[in-house]
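TEACHING EXERCISE
Course module: macromolecular assemblies
Task: Read the component lines below, then compare them to the predicted structure of the full complex.
Student: A.B.
Group: 4
Components provided:
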Amino acid sequence: MKETTLTIPSDRPRTRREPSKGWALPKLRELWEYRELLFFFVWRDIKVRYRQTVMGALWAIIQPFFTMVIFSLFFGRLAKIPSDGLPYPVFSYAALVPWTFFATALNQASNSLVVSANMVKKIYFPRLSLPIATVLASVVDFVLAFMVLLGMMLFYGLVPTTNVLWLPFFLLLALVTSLGVSLWLSAMNVQFRDVHYTIPFLTQAWLFVTPIAYPSSLLPEPWRTLYGLNPMAGVVEGFRWALLGTDTAPGPMTVVSAVVALILLISGAFYFRRMEQGFADVL
Amino acid sequence: MSKLAIDVAGLGKEYHIGGPQKNYYRLTDQLVDIATAPFRRAGRLLRGQASSAAELDQAIWAVKDVSFQIRAGEVVGIIGRNGAGKSTLLKILSGITDPTDGYADIYGRVGSLLEVGTGFHPELTGRENVFLNGAILGMRKSEIERKFDEIVAFAEIDKFIDTPVKHYSSGMYVRLAFSVAAHLEPEILLIDEVLAVGDIAFQRKCLGKMDDVAQAGRTVVFVSHNMGLLQTLCQRGIFLHQGGVDTDGTITEAVDAYLQTLEQARSHDLSQRTDRKGLGHVRLVGAEVFNGSQAGSSILKTGYPARFLFSVDAIVPGIACNFFIYDSIGQPVISFTSKTRGPEDSFDPKNGLMFVCELDELLLLPGRYRIDVAIVGDNRLQDFIEAAAVFEVGEGHVGGRPAPQDGKFSVVMSHRWTLPTKN
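Instructor-supplied answer key:
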């Protein structure tokens, strides 16, 4: 209309919408600016997760607990799998607690963008906040299952040593691993719903390649370090060491696990960043 | 000198859509195709191309080479027919999707309102949803807390604020959702056709709120089909046609240009038109207007009978025809629906796939009118065409009284006066 020259305001931030070219840095600052939204998403997931279920939050305990019972019966009693000198139930449950967190987070997060398709198509907000929020919401389940672990330790008269100070580190490792894998899977699931059908199979296979029903001490050393390539192996053995004092102190395997987890997280964030501008068009 | 709020330069957005369906002559061809499809798709994935859902080989430009600047504080209406690129433009401006070409610079905090109630969770209470939805729309928690009472009061649902929204009536749901959105206060506000919600009284209230927003010196970009509304709210209008800017000027200029192309569109065969919305299981294939005489003349007169004929190409359960009459400046005048039944409604096998709507007395003043038609069925919108027909009303009589053209008003009613006398 009127050909007046318009000045560029210096007091207002400029946002540029332009074609994205290839790989770019993940939008972490934006995620920080929207931290309140992230908090609301976590809160929503927690509130909604067990609504309209009879058992409610008990589900967070039932799943790992009954898996433990089954493992104890078949692997502990029948197959007589060694358990590093510990009662088999507490040996396997200590591993199942972080494992269930990982599996739940994966399952929920991989679908997080698809179930919120309508929001993604109609509103702009950092897409990263959806998978991250679902992973964080799973922490509540973890805490509940962890309480039961403490109860079991009391029952078997196991007192943690100062190793327990390392526990937060292994928790963080579990979180980083879950987030990394979730970022990959959630972004892929937008394009290829095949991913959703792969998850049950993937978690099942992953369960068996992680030393949950058996100890990693079954493997001789060069192979044990290699086992760390599965970051959940590092997490699980770390948990046992920190809480139950098994002979799996942090070593080369833990380092390998930590490195792999970080690689997963960083590459996941970059992959997510590359795919995210297409989400609204593809969903 | 004015400050810049939005600067759009050479903006384009290309979408890939499925190509034509293949014809299979043999079952084996089809089986081979099904078997090889995963490999072809995996190949595409490796080359970084999109989607598993369809074979995407046709590209269309939803928006192409669009440039304009919007000054801070300006209220701009974006108009255009279905598929002209309005929604895509808003999606790019709000950051939901990236452009394929060009850029858009935005100065200031942007809030967008492309749909009312996105992100509402049925299991959460009204109160919880206000906070969640507010956060999704970009409000700070402190801001929502400050405005909370106002939001609830505006929505008129005080009593049910702690009830899960799944128990709300659809009216309550929409009122609450809109109320949250209406209290958004960014420097730049992008709004897509969201006012067609709630009952009439609430719509009026929303319009009032929108007017406040427009008056408050905020930059607003507004997409709507409601020309009357746009003309009251906006000073400037941008008319998009086939993905490009056709007219950028005062809102009146833009609306005029839009109405003109609507009339041109009418001359096309309806079944050939692509600017339509809806599911498409049923298509409107004909829309005609006749006067009451059997001769089939299409010249209507005020106060005389009129017949509206709409042909469809199929019947689905619960099919209904809605049509809307607009005057020459795009103001809505009246709507008709076959959904609500009257005692004189009937079925006539002779008519086949045709809706016939008959009026004994056409109570429209002389002038030019257009008809938008919506076909619904299976509880979904099946087809929607703007300006499916345009007709002219000539001068006539209502209740024996002449009804001349009036520049402003378009409806007339039969009536009588008792006049004052000096006795």
